[in-house]
Every structure is written in C-alpha cells, then in structure tokens.
C-alpha cells in the first residue's frame, strides 16, 4: 500500500510504502478513495496545541514514525476478518468512523465511545487515511454511504459530526433568536448548512476574511459580520438582537471573546475550534448574565448515523469541496494552514 507519511514533526509528509494489511478477527480492510484534510492534521504535524501564555500541549507521544495522518476516510470494503459473518459486503461504499475507544468502559457502553480515555483514533493515534488502505477494528465503525458522494462522506466523519454535535447542544437554547457561527472555514460552513436546516431563527456568520463572509452569504447565511471590526457586535445586535447561542469554530482568544459577547441572557457558547490561546471572563458574570460554555469533541456513533440520514434525505446542502491527488497532500495542508481553502479540501487516492 502507498501512503503520505509523517516521518518527522514540523516537516513535510513523505511518500512511503508498506505491505497492505490483512484483516483478522473482526477487522475490516477499507480501500480508500477519498480522505479529507482537517485543521487538526496541522496540529499533529506541528506536534503541539497552543495553550496560551506561551504554553504548549505536546502531542508527539503515543505514535511511532513514520505515521499516517487522515481521519476523514471514505472508500469501499476490500476484505474482512474471519469473525465478520454478516451485515457488511465486499465492495460496499463506506465511510469509516475514526473516533475509536476501548469498547468496554462505561463511557463506551453508554454510547460515548469518542470520549473514551483509551484512544485508538484513526489518523491521530493509529495510522489513518492518507493512504490506499486502512484497517477498522470492527464493522460497527463502517457506515454504508450509498446515496452520498464519497467526496463529502469522509468529511462527515469529522467536520460533519463535529458541527452536528455542536448544533445539537446549541439547539437546547433555541428560542427563535439568532445563532451566530464564528469562523467560516470547512467545519463552520458545514455547521452553517446544518443550522439552515435545523435552527429556528436567523443564522449569522462572523469571520475576519471577506472572501469567506461572501461564501457564507452565498451559502444562505442571514447576515455576515467582520468579527475583527469593533462595531460588529453593535451592528449584529441592531440587525438581529442577541443570540440564543453561538458556536466558535475557530477556537482562538479573539473568536471566543466575540462568540461570548454576542449572546443574550440564558444563552450558550459552544466551543469547537482548536486554534489555541486562553480565555477568561469575570466570574460574577456567570450568575448575573447568566450563560453557559460548552466544549464539543466530534460526536457519537449514534449521532453519526443521524447525520448520515439527514444528509441522505437531501435536507442539507453540501459544502463546497475541492479535490487534490494524494501526492499533493503537502500543498493541501499548506493551503489550509494559510487560509486559502474555501469549504473542504479532500485528497483522492
């Protein structure tokens, strides 16, 4: 099998080859046709997350090099282990759920395997999808994507379920007022399309990039604002009033400060992005305002099934997707790092 592998941190990926794995037991071998490029891949390459105050969270442990990134995987079932008896067919188009836990703890057994302390996350802690093939440990991580474009399907396993999980939390605060989406990158644009389908009220997008604001407006946002403009909060309130909820798809100090500044009393901020930094707010504001802050890390297997059915129903307009050959993975990552991607960028294998 061929791969684009991380052979050192903070360095370009390199083409590598290894034997194609043979599935055993309950394993499923997937021949990959598409793999999305995610901003978290950049954090893996850098080897850290920015924690603010010049502090870094080292994420170089737990994997050996060369290592294969990529967790937004779509393709087809190529082979199965001897213990896989039914429910999955060779050649079946599929997407692979990458957020794999131990399968045995209370968290896993109550449906929140993505939050398990034992992580076997494809492309994060075990080899992923910047390759011709990948192994999933069990058929429950294989989703039939019949009726869904493979260019889109892989991204649903990360950007899709992340934005869906965030929106489900936000919907608990929906009283007919606005939802503010901060950040119109790939995940934010997916969140916009889901919100247009599910949110009762105006869906507003804030971004510092005028090109992305224009893209959000063209995709159906009720209003767009430049979150770096000092008058943006006042203009938003004048146009729509305070938000019932905001979702920060950037995860920077400036984006989170803006996201919490535009919500009303009893509202919530949902934090999704991982760009980095530090956030603080006066403690008395929590009871005086009051408001809530939630963090979201992808979503469960059950949520993934719900999202696929929603997309299959045609109620969600797919985000813009551009494709590159696997050999251009480094260029795709560089474009993502420097904000040159509108929507999602997907590698074709």
Automatic annotation (TrEMBL):
Record-linked PROSITE patterns: ADH_ZINC (PS00059)
GO molecular function annotation: alcohol dehydrogenase (NAD+) activity; zinc ion binding
Enzyme type, top EC level: oxidoreductase
Enzyme Commission identifier(s): 1.1.1.1
An example Gene Ontology CC term for this record: cytoplasm
Pfam families referenced in this protein's UniProt entry, alphabetically: ADH_N, ADH_zinc_N
Signal peptide as annotated in the record: none
Domain Enoyl reductase (ER) per the UniProt entry, residue ranges: 11-347
KW Protein biosynthesis (keyword) present: no
Sequence similarity: Belongs to the zinc-containing alcohol dehydrogenase family.
Name of the protein this chain belongs to: Alcohol dehydrogenase
Organism: hydrothermal vent metagenome
Phylogenetic lineage: unclassified sequences, metagenomes, ecological metagenomes
